[in-house]
From TrEMBL:
Matching Gene3D superfamilies: Classic Zinc Finger (3.30.160.60)
SUPFAM superfamilies the UniProt entry points to: beta-beta-alpha zinc fingers
PROSITE patterns: ZINC_FINGER_C2H2_2
Keyword terms: Developmental protein, DNA-binding, Gap protein, Metal-binding, Nucleus, Repeat, Zinc, Zinc-finger
Subcellular location field: Nucleus
GO biological-process terms attached to the record: segmentation
Similarity comment: Belongs to the hunchback C2H2-type zinc-finger protein family.
Pfam family, one: zf-H2C2_5
Recorded coiled-coil stretches: none
Entry keyword Coiled coil: no
Official protein name in the record: Protein hunchback
Amino acid sequence: KHHSPEVLKCEQCDYTTSYQPYLNYHVKGRHSSKQFKCKHCSYVTKWNTNLAKHVRWKHGTDRFNCDRCEYHSKSKGDLKRHLNSRHGTDANKVKCEMCEFSTKWHSNLNRHVKVCRKTAKNSLIAHVGEHR
């Protein structure tokens, strides 16, 4: 037998849901006057998790440092992107099959291959023309 989920209604507006955590989130976000304030600047939010994230990104001292240059970041992902783009090894590179060109980026390889093919085709046409 199938029964409909209980409809939960906000006591302060027309919002309804069948999931209690959604109602809690709605009430806190829409109707709560409680605010979390940053000690370092004027940032204010209703969510303590947002404040923690803000402090970490804007005022935090935890840094991910590149061991090959002076680059540093508050994000491990940003450091990883930096390492791949600035200090990528040959293992990370993609290579042209028609010449010695290599790059860390597929988009650069695709652009290069278009030019390389045209150059190779023109060279072949010129070479064949020499034998006529």
